[in-house]
User: Fold this.
Amino acid sequence: MSTPLRRRFLSGLGGMAAAMTGVRTASADNPESHATVVIPQYARAQNYRSLKQSSYDRTGGNRDFWHIAPGETLDVFKSDGTGVITHIWFTIAAKSQDHLKELVLRIYWDGNSKPSVEVPVGDFFGLNLGEYFLYQSAFLNCSSVKALNCYFAMPFQRSARITVTNDGSQPVDAFYSNIDYQLVSSLPEDALYFHAQYRQATPNHALKGNGKNIDGRGNYEFFDALGSGQVMGVTLGVLQNAEGWFGEGDEMIFVDDNEKPLINGTGTEDYFCGAWDFGGRNGAVPFANLYNGAPYISLPERTGGRYCLYRWHADNPVTFQHSVKFTIEHGHADDRADNFYSVGYWYQNKPFTDFPALPPVAERIPKPHLSE
Assistant:
């Protein structure tokens, strides 16, 4: 290729790149011409006040943690005004092996007496079976060695309050907390409230039907809500009560209509954006990606097998105008009786607080059951 042709080709590529990125480049013949430069958001002037609330030692010492007695509720965050919580970090030292299930996280928006988030701490951060393991995703992670992180943005108009309650019988020796947030003069009119709801079935009730499921009436339910908003995703812990692959269940999402699902999927591993049983009985491979993962897999497809899964819909949140009910089959046409422990995450226009009561703490601890 001749040199002039090569130059014209490269020049064309530069023009295409500028068109795609919205950047207007100065020409070589006129370097003084103005160019539009794209500046990342973090390099532009901000109009918020950056703040943090933490468990630091108020005396100036090094006891940068809280003690939580059995039955005690601790306020870990309180703010009046308008703002956005941007990051939550916890790490916990506790004698109880079950503290991830015993401690309950609640978040209250704008002075409501009932929470819009009510989830055992471990489940909220994707550790749905009450065990620590390292993983990374877009919104939640567990960093080395027991550091719990949440990056969901949580706007509030008038106030926000976050509590942690110890439902266990032993004290929590050290609860460390850092919560980053911003105070602003106002929020956009379309800012929504963050929600998270815990559910479990221990076990699911296996159906002995004709292998067909159209209406989803026997499905496992991640959550349901009234209002206008969008679904952001779920985390799910599975404890197998029988041999075989648990994941032939399809997700079925009912949007503004509780009689007919708007969205139907093709299988549990497909919904979590894996494939082929995540590798099967003798080849399952844990994975943790930006928006989907099965970061914890133990004894796959065996009685006692354990899975932790997550899926985020940040690429295409599932919108609803009046109501949403998010369900998934437990086995094909609900034919399996495994234990499910889950959290649904969503945003909506008004704080929703009509949650079912949390199961007693003893029932939240994962234990196998005989299959039905």
